[in-house]
Amino acid sequence: MDYYFRKTTDYSFEEAIEKVTELLKEEGFGILFRINMDETLKAKIGADFPRYTTLGACNPKFAFKALTSENLIGLMLPCNVVISETPEGKVEVAAIDAVQSMLAVENPAVKETAQQIAEKLKTVISKLQSCSYNHSSSNKKHHEQYHNNYH
Question: Could you please report the per-residue DSSP string of 6-46?
Answer without folding.
Answer: EEEESS-HHHHHHHHHHHHHHTT-EEEEEEEHHHHHHHHH-
